Amino acid sequence: MRCRLLLPLLALFLALSPLPLAAREKLTIAAAADLKFAMEEIVVAFKQAHPADEVETIYGSSGKFHTQIQQGAPFDLYFSADIAYPRLLEKEGLAAFPTRPYAFGRIVLWSASRDARRMTLADLADPAIRKIAIANPKHAPYGKRAEEALRAAGLWQKLEGRLVMGENIAQTAQYVQTGNAEVGIIALALALNQELATKGGYALIPETLHQPLEQGFIVTRRAAGKPLAKQFADYMASAEARRVMARHGFVLPGEAPK
Predict the structure, then answer these.
(1) Residue 119 CA, distance from chain mean position
(2) Average pLDDT, the chain
(3) Rounded to whole angstroms, how far apart are CA atoms 258 and 256?
């Protein structure tokens, strides 16, 4: 009889107790550096509905993340500034679900020391501009597009000796911020951030000078059994997440540039 009384009490206790730490989930997200400010907002909003779970975001070069995932890096989601990288991983069987596009990026001229709002690529030929920062085209999509634009404008060979290359687009912006370069070709999503927007302004580089910066993400194969990974992936398509992305200068799938 005593055991029969204790069992309902034990069930009630377990129902009201907080989840044990082992039952809580953790996500590790690898994200292109241009997403830093937008993703920080999105993660904060997502965690409001998942307060017990942990979301860690690591920012860097899309190309380097691609290689690291091939080598077994423990990432649950991978957001790339070039949709080609996650599609390659999908073909290799390293994605839990098909690649999802999430945005188109834009490149801009930006400077912390001069007014860049009326600058064009042709202005970079000015001898007074001794150093120009771009992301490394070998593994950074924004660097690839910067090179394409400079080649299309007939400036690559003239300026190649003055280029300073960042490992990713955030480091590229940092070079300009710290005076290691007078002008940089960076992501609009970074130029719109308050920290950079108060300095020098920016000028959009015509999209006709480079291939589209279509961006995409995957849930990696290692996260196939993680409900939280799928929930975060689905949240990226929500109205709330799309508003954040648009506010940070991204052109969203299915929408025209503003």
Answers:
(1) 26
(2) 90
(3) 6
